[in-house]
Design goal:
This protein has helices at about 15-25, 55-65, 85-95, 100-105, 110-115, 120-130, 130-145, and strands at about 35-40, 45-50, 65-70, 80-85. The protein is α+β, with helices and mostly antiparallel strands.
C-alpha cells in the first residue's frame, strides 16, 4: 500500500513542497511573532516582539550557559556538562527570540546600556525585567516555538 500525500490540505491548494517551505520560514514570518507589552502600575512602559526559536538555537544557548568540567576518565574523553546558569540562559533566550529590529532598539541600545552600566543586551534584560516578567516572556517564547503544541492527529483504523 502506497500512501502518497500530494496536498497538505486539499482545500488550501498548497503542494507538499509549498507547505514545507512555508513551515520552514517560521522564524522570519511576522504571523508567527507576538508582541510583548511591559506594563507596571497600569502604565505601558515599552513593548517588543518575539519570534519562535528552533531547537538548535535553544541547544546553542544552553551550551553557552553551561560550565563544562574535565572528564574524570582523562583528557581523551569528552568534557562533562556541569552547572547551567539558568538566569543567564533565560535572559539569552529572551534576547535571541526578540525580533532583530526590536533587539537593536531596546536590548542593544548603547545609551540605555551605558546608563544602566551593562555591556551586553542580555544583561539589559536582567536590569529591566522582573523575574516574573522574564518567566512570562519565556512561556510565550516556548509556546511560539511549538513546545506543548499538538502537531499531529492520531488516526484510528
Amino acid at each position: 500500500m502506497n500512501n502518497v500525500i500530494t496536498d497538505v490540505n486539499p482545500d488550501s491548494g498548497l503542494s507538499i513542497l509549498e507547505g514545507i517551505l512555508t513551515a520552514a520560514g517560521f522564524k522570519d514570518d511576522p504571523d508567527c511573532w507576538e508582541r510583548i507589552n511591559i506594563s507596571r502600575g497600569g502604565e505601558k512602559l515599552f513593548s517588543f516582539r518575539i519570534r519562535p526559536l528552533d531547537e538548535q538555537e535553544v541547544a546553542d544557548l544552553r551550551r553557552q550557559c553551561t560550565r563544562f568540567l574535565p572528564n574524570p576518565n582523562g583528557a581523551g574523553y569528552p568534557r562533562i556538562e556541569g552547572e547551567v546558569n539558568l538566569v543567564r540562559l533565560r535572559s539569552m533566550k529572551i534576547y535571541a527570540a526578540t525580533v532583530p529590529d526590536d533587539r537593536a532598539l531596546i536590548w542593544d541600545s548603547a545609551e540605555a546600556q551605558q546608563r544602566l552600566g551593562v555591556m551586553r543586551g542580555e544583561d539589559m534584560i536582567d536590569c529591566v525585567l522582573m523575574a516574573g516578567e522574564k518567566d512570562a516572556v519565556i512561556e510565550r517564547i516556548d509556546a511560539l516555538s511549538g513546545y506543548g503544541a499538538r502537531v499531529f492527529d492520531t488516526l484510528k483504523n
